[in-house]
TrEMBL record, chain A:
Any one Gene Ontology cellular component term annotated for this protein: cell envelope
Gene3D superfamilies: Periplasmic binding protein-like II (3.40.190.10)
Record keywords, A-Z: Signal, Transport
Domain of life (superkingdom): Bacteria
Stretch forming the signal peptide: 1-28
UniProt protein name: Carbohydrate ABC transporter substrate-binding protein (CUT1 family)
Family: Belongs to the bacterial solute-binding protein 1 family.
Native organism: Nonomuraea fuscirosea
Top-level taxonomy: Bacteria, Bacillati, Actinomycetota, Actinomycetes, Streptosporangiales
Automatic annotation (TrEMBL), chain B:
Pfam families, A to Z: BPD_transp_1
Matching Gene3D superfamilies: MetI-like
Keyword Membrane: yes
Membrane topology: Multi-pass membrane protein
InterPro entries the UniProt entry points to: ABC_transporter_permease, MetI-like, MetI-like_sf
Ranges of residues in domain ABC transmembrane type-1: 65-277
Annotated protein name in UniProt: Carbohydrate ABC transporter membrane protein 1 (CUT1 family)
Record keywords: Cell membrane, Membrane, Transmembrane, Transmembrane helix, Transport
Amino acid sequence: MSTPPLGRRGFLQGALGIGALAATGSLAACAPGGTATQPSKLAAPSASTSAAKGEITIWNRSGDLFKVFDAAIAKFRAAYPNVKVNHQAVDIDAKLANTLISGTDVPDGSFWDDAKIGGQAEHLFDLTDLIAPYKDQTSPYKLSVNTVDGKIYGVPWDLDPGLLWYREDILDSAGVDPASLATYDDLITAARTVKEKDPETRPIHLEKTPFLSQLWLEMLAGQQGTSLTDAQGKLRLDSEEYRRIFTWIQTAVKDDLVTHAPYLEPADVKSLDDGRQVFVPWAIWWSFAPQQLLKATKGKWRAAPLPAWTPGGARSGAMGGSSFVIPAKAKNPELAWLLYEFLCFKEPGYTAVYGPNDVYPGGLSTSIPSYIPAADPAKPLFQPIEALGGQDLWKVAVEAGATIPAATPIPWWWAQSVDYLGNNMQRLMEGKMSPDQVISESAEKIQRNLIDRS
Amino acid sequence: MRSTRLSPYLFIAPFFVVFAAFGIYPLIYALQLSFMRWRGAGAARWVGVDNYLYLLTSPDFWASLGNSAVMWVLIVPLQVVAGLGGAVLLANARLRLRGFFRVAFIAPFVTPLVAMAQVWIVVFDQDYGLINYLLNLAGLPDVAWLTSTTWSKPTLALLFLWKTTGFAIIILLAGLQAVPGGVYEAAALDGASRARQFWSITVPLVRRSMAFLVVIQTLAVFQMFAEPYVVTQGGPYGSTTTAGLYLYNHITASDLGTGAANSFLLVLLVFGLSLVSVRLLRPKDEVS
């Protein structure tokens, strides 16, 4: 008779013992988060340009912009021949936060939305000292959204100023001078004039997707120097500035002056092309529409600074934008900094991205640099745009961008707040909510579900 | 001697090691996480049952469960009926083109869901979709299939039905083919009509398969994620934010503790629903 293996009871006891060990020892060792750590501060690289040596992995978005950065990185390598750049197209929104949290296969640097940076600052290098020499010459807005507790965590990249896109031919025939659109009240008056001439028009675009409508709202709020939260994270939705925006929207809706359509989806494109939409207050990246999407009205659109909310107020706000981050667990953070310094603050770098290139023969015209010396109205990086009737969009955009006030870091829960504020904005645009209801209901839910749980 | 005693355990050890690493450990880790507040950065804070209490008192959490419950009502009963009909049809040896129909019914099930969801977006587009085009041809007005709170859930339910009814047919067909042919012959000799045979033989004898189908589809409906994620992103106004999507929203917002608590609440709910389904659909002989 063979010796029986371990008895059933012995086996179960052993298994339970191992299980208990796993549940206590290993879990205690791997408790989420562990202890809080202070972000590391990245110092300036000590090596000279020619001595900088090594390999870095850089994450970027896929698509045309990746190709543009590829060409710019080739220029960087000409300046730093001993630095090899492993440039990868990655679904950053899906992967970067998880990678930072897990700490595995972390890139040396990555492109990232400004809205995401504040929430993950602890996983990023503090770049305050490195950016210090450029700080006074960088857009205050971009610096402020990259700053958490006085420390800068992102290398400010693009600035996306809001502009007023309008149909020049329709305004001409309605006798409206674009230069007269100095305030949002002027815009309502002009829309009424256009509609009187052609009752079929719904002149002003209002966004139908909750996320983009809230991003748009933040542009209009930022124009007035405010944002959803203050620097301490306190909600400030219940304010004169937000109430002013919501009341303006309500007026435009009540007067039947709006086309409520989702951003550049077929229904939107159709009403843009058939002349029902005349005014699109939107970010500079709307320039993509007349260049790529619109057919019948290509060449008839122009850009102007946004109207101001109060006479003499700022003529633009930012809508979106991205920066570069260097993860705290990067293997070669100094070399990543050299790359980003080259792209953002050195003329050959930012010129390679924004200037004429193989991908965009006229230059990249969907944003402008946030580094002020690069955004000189007299020294355009991208060329006048034929689809805008040859207008010098560069000059309009950089002059508008220069007026954008400083802001505060974007709270980590911003995207989640769309379920409340973005949705309620849609209700306002559909005439189902008043400005006060939008403010009170959104504020109550954001406070309860997002802020009090932080 | 000792090595002889241990060797069987060493042979089966790899499975247990892998299972412990990728099954047990993440489960315990997630359970621990559900009692903490952690956003992926900084120290995790022990909050006891706070995440559970938050969810159980959150109108959004209950709304997501309500959305899933409505989806269940729209999908599961209809799918059981349609699946049984399809299975009976395919089990009929005299059906012409039986092979073609089998492939046709199963094709949506093996087609990638995201691709089908994209097709749904195009077909049900309010302004340019095929369905509204056909409605217009018939003199009917446009319907906001994906952008109104009234129609968004039925439209997504239809996608789910289209995608998974082939699976239901397979399950019920397998159950149907296990019914001995002699039972039908005996019933026919006793003068039972086709309808009588269906209600008195087919339905009772495939009851176990139906119970299995209901449990599996209940699990699937309450975990439904890709359909609303791709087609409606949970909108309009959260009307298609299913329990699965609501859970995902916590995770993507790095609200990991709440997401973990949500997972366990969902597990409990689905477990309870499955038990109820099994009890309701178990054959009468088992009940006694």
